[in-house]
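tool_log.txt
---
The assistant was asked to compare two proteins side by side. It first ran the structure predictor on the initial sequence, then on the second. Raw inputs and outputs are pasted verbatim so the downstream comparison step can read them without reformatting.
(1)
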Amino acid sequence: MLGETEEGAYLLMEWIEPGNGDQRELGTALAKLHQVTAPQFGFRKDNYLGILPQINTYEENWWTFFFKNRLESQITLAEKSNRWGGRRQEKYLLFKKHVLQITDQQKNVPSLLHGDLWSGNVFFDQQGRPVFIDPAVSYGNREQDIAMSQLFGGFRPEFLTAYQDSFPLEDGWSERLPVYQLYYLLAHLNMFGESYGSQVDQLLEKN
């Protein structure tokens, strides 16, 4: 809760005592979150992915939204810090063309996303219930959350099994994960520097 007194503004948050839980419950909870949908992709306001601005301007087409508001907004930031040159741009344009070809027939539904689903942003309370924290929320393709969960580890196989049991992903989802992982690697490039550049390059070349 945000508030303000004569001494200044304050942020009041609930304290949740960490406990232990079952990652199957986590997978089921994420599936329930993703079943909340909206008419368009985006969100009612822009927000943040970590310290970086995240653009959420509504779009009816998922890939228009994803390339413009996710990948290309990060590329613009990388250009400003001299971390994006002509060679990477050439690779990116080929990457984009390939992705649009292989995803042309995919059905995309605007699902409520956590948006920054790495293992440090989830835990369990004392009753074993999953708790999601520090979201970069928007309505998008749910494969984006799955992609982030698989990028840096920390989620056991039963997490994904339980998710699939509750809300099965579309055929070919595993082949599309690198597309979404590029967003997070670009963000890490912008936040932490060229140490993530080789991963960005490898992913661009892979597709």
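(2)
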Amino acid sequence: MILGRVIGEIHGSIKHPFYEGKKLLVIEKTSPTGVATGDYLIAADSVGAGADERVLVLDEGNGARQVFDSKDGPVRAVVVGIIDDIVT
């Protein structure tokens, strides 16, 4: 699992049919305290996350496909939660 913050959204006029109706988000990876690591990834949204929200990302293809109930969808990373608070 990866902690991150939504910093953008990807739009395309031509896409694989799997992505019809799904948002692709640009996620800036962060530490548990919210400090940016300088890395990012692209993840399909499954929870309705929006700009500047802290999120939990599953970055593993088979698990991501299971979230979308797909046996062969071309997906690796998926946003699986919106983070309200982290208590350490």
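---
observation on (2): The first strand starts at residue 2 and ends at 10. The mean pLDDT is 95.
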